[in-house]
Design goal:
Helix content: over 70%
Radius of gyration: 14 Å
Order of helices and strands: HHHHHH
Length: about 140
């Protein structure tokens, strides 16, 4: 399977990540992002959350979790130079999520969180993801 990385989406998510890092007051930033060791722990934790969503929640919740994986994969790829994003998207495709759905979900969720400090509202994020997927 060929995975195409949308560079503009990846770039936009990285901009969001840098803004969110500022809002959250992280002090050990590397190039405006959390260190790779911190990101890696969060990335693997998100896989567990996705598995739980697949087992017990709606597809919309699964896309909400896929957004987290995309978010952390972008940052890990930036910090390490390793290909996290393509392998993440390929794995998510195996769970029935297209690249476009995952990218749209990540932009919706993290675009909202990057708008201002304290933006984190699952119900609103789910609605934003629903709208982004409907627009595809």
């Amino acid at each position: 399977m060929d995975i195409t990385i949308d560079a503009s989406t990846k770039g936009a998510v990285l901009v969001c990540a840098r803004q969110i890092a500022i809002y959250r007051g992280y002090t050990n930033l590397v190039d405006g992002l959390q260190p790779a060791v911190d990101l890696e722990a969060k990335y693997y934790h998100e896989w567990q959350e996705l598995r739980e969503a697949i087992a017990t929640k709606s597809r919309l919740h699964q896309l909400h979790e896929s957004a987290d994986l995309y978010y952390y994969a972008c940052q890990l790829e930036q910090q390490t130079g390793q290909s996290f994003l393509a392998s993440t998207l390929a794995s998510l495709h195996n769970f029935g999520m297209s690249e476009q759905e995952v990218e749209a979900s990540a932009l919706a969720k993290y675009g909202f969180r990057a708008e201002k400090a304290g933006n984190k509202d699952e119900a609103h994020e789910l609605q934003l993801i629903r709208e982004a997927i409907a627009a595809l």
